[in-house]
Predict the 3D structure of the following.
Amino acid sequence: MKKSVSKKMKEVIEKHMGEMNHVSSIMELTHTGARMMLQIAIEEELKAFIGRDYYERRTDNQKGLRSGFKPRTIKTGCGDIEIEMPQVRNTDIPFHSQLLPPYLTRIKEIEETIPLLYMHGLSTRKVKKAVGKLLGTRGLSHQNVIKISKKIVDEFNNWKKRDLSQTPVLYLILDGIRLGVRKNTTEKEAILIAWGFLEDGSRELIGVSLGNKESYSSWKYFLDDLIQRGLNEPLLTVIDGCPGLIKAVDEVFPTSDIQRCTKHKTENILDKVLKSDKDNVKDSIRKIFYASTYEHALEAINLFKKDWGKKYPSALECLLDDIESCLTYYKYPYTHRKRIRTTNVAERSFCEVKRRTRTIGRFQEETRALTMVWWQLKELNWYGVVMTHEAKTILDNIRASKYAKAA
């Protein structure tokens, strides 16, 4: 037997169907339909709560009387919806809709969308303007956008305290970016980043921290925090030529191999060369860092000495300074060398960060700056390294050699 439609539901349907005959756009039709469905659902909840239909007399053991309604506005994807929220008196417990609990003014999907708009490039004012066209004339205040976006800040705070003991890092890439973190100052601060290639070949963002600059103390604090949360010492740490970072890595990861970024080294050498010779000198450097074997790289170094050593002694001196740490990657699997000979993994990810932060200029506070950087980086889905059987064998031999030296 079919369930009959309640009297109140008939009233709601007739009222809204009359309105639909006069709508002039799909948006208005959607808005009216959504309001009708919400009103019907709430009326059905009330009918179940008091146990009888609209205008139906109560029995002796039934409590609860309808007592009119109060207007209530809900923000949805099709604009502000005005609901007639029914009121009830003479009940043991107050009536609260399960569909629209007390104080709910926004549909959940709206609250989930606003932080994404903010994190993907819109300022709070632009978010307010964008969603205002969906949420009606009231829209959202600047403060509400910030308040809703706070859920991502909370997610970041949990992430930065997570346990790292179950994150087996094979290669650790460290680098920093300078950003305007606080208002009322022209000084830029360093955001320190740690990327990791894991044992299974995947890539993961390991840590994000703030330092006044890329100093020894800033990097030491950052790396100590990773260790305290359980991070294992990586086989290889990839860094640029920052003296403070080099010193910190030597202390925190004493047995880890160091790979100096060949891209930074190339740029440092070219800074000491005349513009007319830069292309030719760069070709000579590439023969070193793109050689097929370590021995061929050494031959290319000797060739560089012969070709450019007399004309550019300062460039040669720069090349030879700590050159062995620039060639460490030759110990590692050939298929991994492209990923580990430079800090490009970090440098390229900074492009996404700069694109987003360019619209902000300076952040209101430290936590939001770090959250923004973290969000942009974790959204990147770039390749890791391929873990072939040959690669695993080479890595096992490197580990065995390290353990033998430690013993």
